[in-house]
Structure formats: structure tokens, C-alpha cells
Design a protein that fits this description.
Length: 429
């Protein structure tokens, strides 16, 4: 428990934020950004307390709902805020002036024996997701427990501008003045740096001049699965804001040509500032209307490497995006599965003979991963699976437990301390 003193202002702000967040009509980070922009009364410290409690409420929403019994956090956000702050900071941090007439209800919620809650509630996930994970994984318990924890902050070093040793040395110099900031090399990615704390990196010179980018270690390895050679032609079929695109461009030493496609022009526009900072000249963002856009079709059979970083449930990123488990349901999963298969078929047309197609998701569910690949391979016998471990090993990267998931690439938070990722490398024969 922390020693934070909770004021009525913090409670009111958190209650208002929970009332917005628990409608689940948009990404949590965007909702929080709008909330804090409108709430000018809070200072920096109080905002941190509210933000921390809000994310914890999303991570542990199943038990929060269970503790509140007949009350609902969405309909009783003030009581939900009090209970959440009490379980994070201790009820003593609230005091009589903050609790007012709710002390009995808060103490009652905190005294609930959570061992009596249903298994899915204790795992902090919806029932459908709990059932899928427990059927698929023999170590589902540790996996679900890890997905309910907060994630560290991973950075990718832009090797076009510096190297990891130099970045670590710079962090070490900062740590002498701020002992709480600890930076270390990532376990698997040769270009990764991990921070346990989360400083305001966007103000730092090394971020502003493009020497580092925020990117999970597992995502960095997905970029390496593409194994694009210098001078080759590459398509990132679902580029989004460009995290993997820029990593691939750096690995190619800014040679060749990378087409960064996405149907969401606004999301693709987010790549602009990052691309400018990166110093890369081989990346070409293109907003397309559909997967069969004429600008896509003209590349048919010409591309050396195609990456399909497919839209998915995001179930592997729940440490960072805890709201996803409540915004995503089975109906949406079925819809997305169809989109994944369609994208894979469309992307396959671009691959030239001897080229490779890489399919990746940030999902831990086989229905979005192995099942999609099985359907695709049954329709496309000209594609053969290349063992992912061999692709990474050729770049000096050795990932633990790779034999368990072979021939696929799988990263899981309880095994690798990264987000959950799946990847498959297919070669057109």
C-alpha cells in the first residue's frame, strides 16, 4: 500500500473518469486524455494517482464488479472510485472526510473473500476468454495472471543513429541523478532497452532526435521475422502508426523500398512524425481504400517480403490495454477472424516466387493464429512454412520455449515477459 493521501478532488475525478471509461465506447488512453484535458483542477501528482487507479480498475474490473455485488461500477462510479482507491492505497489513505457515508460499503467490499469468486472473475477476464485460454494452454493460470499485471516500458534503439550501448550509457548517466530510473538490455531483441519506470520520454533529446522508439520487445522480433535484405521490396500490409515498419526500415539500413499500407488514413498519419525522427528514406506510407486497391494490385507478384500484422483481439496486449478484454467479445472475434483470412489472401498475391509472407498478431488465441494459417495453407499449397526459430537464429536471436510452439513464433508474458505475440513465416515455392 502507498502512503498517498486521497482528497475528495481525486475521488471525484476518478469517479467521472470511470463513468466514461466503463461505457467502453473508445480506447482507454484516448478517453483519459480527453478527461484530463477537461479536468484542470488536478495537479500532476493527483493526475498520476487517478490514472494509476483507473488503469488498475480496468485490469481488475471483474473483481471490482464482484466486490460491489448488486451495485454496478458504471451506475455507481463514486462508490467504485472509493473501493478502487482503497484497495490500491489502503482505506486509511481516504479518511472520514473522503469516505463520508460510504465507509461501511467500502469496508464491506474490501472484506469480500475473493477465493469464493468464479474462476474467470479471479483471473480478471470475461468468461469467454477464460474458457478459450484454459482450453488452449496447460499453463493458463500463470498466463492469465501475467496478463493482469502492468507491463514494463520497452524501447527500440534506432541503429541508423546510434547503438544500444550508447543509449544504455546515457540512461546510466541519468540514473545517477534519478536512482529510480533503471534501464537494461532486453533479453531477446538485440536492439531493445527495458525501463521498469515510465518517465516522460517524449521530452528527452534521445526521443526527439529519433534515437529511440517505444516498442515492445516481442514486436521488435516480429520485425526481424520479416528478415528483409538490404535493397529488397517490402510491403507492410497493415502498417498502422508504423512501429514495425520503422523497425524493418532500420534493419534494411534505409535501402530498398517499403510500402506502408493501411486503410485507416488517420492512423497512418501518425507515422509521419515518427518517420521524420527516424531518418529513414525508404518508407512510403500509402492510405488505401481496400485490400484490392489498384495501388496494391500493381505490386502483384513483385514483392520480396510481405508483412500482415493483422487486426485482432489484442488479447496479448492486455497488460498495456486492459480495456480491450471488456471491449472485445466473441461476436467481434468472429468478424475479425474473417478479416484476417481475407487480408492474408490479398497479401499473398503480392509475394513473388521465392519471396516470403509473414503473418503476425498480438493475440494469444489459436482461433486468430494457427486456425487462420491452417485455412490459408489448405487453399495455397504454393506456400510452405519456414520455422520461425530458424529465421531468428540466423540473426543471432534465440528465444526460449521455441520448440514448444514450433514452427510458429510465440511470445507470452509469463514465459518471456513481453506482450503476447504470434508469427508465421511462409515462403512461396
Amino acid at each position: 500500500m502507498s502512503e498517498a493521501r486521497i482528497s475528495p478532488l481525486i475521488v471525484d475525478s476518478l469517479a467521472g473518469l470511470l463513468a466514461r471509461l466503463l461505457r467502453f465506447d473508445g480506447p482507454a488512453d484516448a478517453v483519459m486524455k480527453r478527461h484530463f484535458k477537461a479536468d484542470r483542477q488536478l495537479g500532476g501528482r493527483d493526475r498520476s494517482v487517478v490514472a494509476e487507479a483507473a488503469f488498475d480498475a480496468l485490469r481488475r474490473l471483474a473483481t471490482l464488479r464482484w466486490m460491489m455485488q448488486t451495485a454496478d461500477p458504471l451506475r455507481a462510479p463514486h462508490l467504485a472510485a472509493l473501493i478502487e482507491l482503497a484497495r490500491v492505497h489502503g482505506i486509511e489513505s481516504l479518511g472520514p472526510r473522503v469516505l463520508r457515508g460510504d465507509e461501511r460499503a467500502v469496508r464491506g467490499a474490501l472484506s469480500m473473500n475473493q477465493s469464493l469468486a468464479p474462476a474467470a472473475v479471479r483471473a480478471e477476464v470475461p468468461t469467454w476468454l477464460f474458457q478459450k485460454v484454459t482450453i488452449q494452454y496447460h499453463d493458463a493460470g500463470p498466463l492469465l495472471e501475467s496478463l493482469a499485471q502492468a507491463a514494463p516500458l520497452d524501447l527500440r534503439v534506432n541503429t541508423m543513429k546510434t547503438d544500444r550501448a550508447a543509449v544504455l550509457a546515457e540512461f546510466k548517466a541519468v540514473a545517477r541523478a534519478d536512482g529510480s530510473l533503471q534501464a537494461a538490455a532486453t533479453r531477446y531483441s538485440p536492439d531493445g532497452v527495458r525501463l521498469r519506470e515510465k518517465p516522460a520520454l517524449m521530452r528527452w533529446p534521445m526521443y526527439k532526435d529519433g534515437r529511440i522508439e517505444v516498442q515492445d520487445e516481442g514486436s521488435q522480433l516480429v520485425a526481424r521475422l520479416v528478415s528483409a535484405r538490404r535493397g529488397s521490396m517490402v510491403v507492410d500490409f497493415c502498417a498502422g502508426a508504423g512501429g514495425k515498419t520503422l523497425a524493418i526500415g532500420s534493419l534494411m539500413k534505409s535501402t530498398g523500398r517499403i510500402y506502408a499500407f493501411d486503410i485507416n488514413a488517420k492512423r497512418l498519419a501518425g507515422m509521419g512524425p515518427r518517420l521524420a525522427r527516424s531518418g529513414l528514406s525508404n518508407v512510403h506510407p500509402v492510405a488505401i481504400r481496400t485490400a484490392s486497391d489498384p495501388r496494391v494490385k500493381r505490386l502483384s507478384g513483385k514483392i520480396d517480403r510481405v508483412l500482415v500484422d493483422a487486426p485482432c483481439s489484442g488479447s496479448g496486449t492486455l497488460r498495456r490495454n486492459p480495456d480491450l478484454k471488456w471491449r472485445f467479445d466473441e461476436a467481434e472475434r468472429e468478424r475479425v477472424k474473417g478479416v484476417q483470412s481475407d487480408l492474408l489472401r490479398a497479401a499473398a498475391r503480392l509475394v513473388k516466387s521465392g519471396g516470403r509472407l509473414v503473418y503476425a498478431t498480438c493475440s494469444v488465441l489459436s482461433v486468430e493464429n494457427q486456425d487462420v494459417l491452417a485455412g490459408f495453407l489448405s487453399e495455397h499449397p504454393q506456400f510452405a512454412v519456414v520455422p520461425a526459430a530458424e529465421v531468428l537464429r540466423s540473426q543471432g536471436v534465440e528465444v526460449e520455449h521455441s520448440e514448444r510452439f514450433a514452427p510458429w513464433f510465440v511470445m507470452l508474458p509469463h514465459l518471456h515477459d513481453t506482450d503476447g505475440f504470434f508469427g508465421a513465416v511462409l515462403e512461396k515455392t
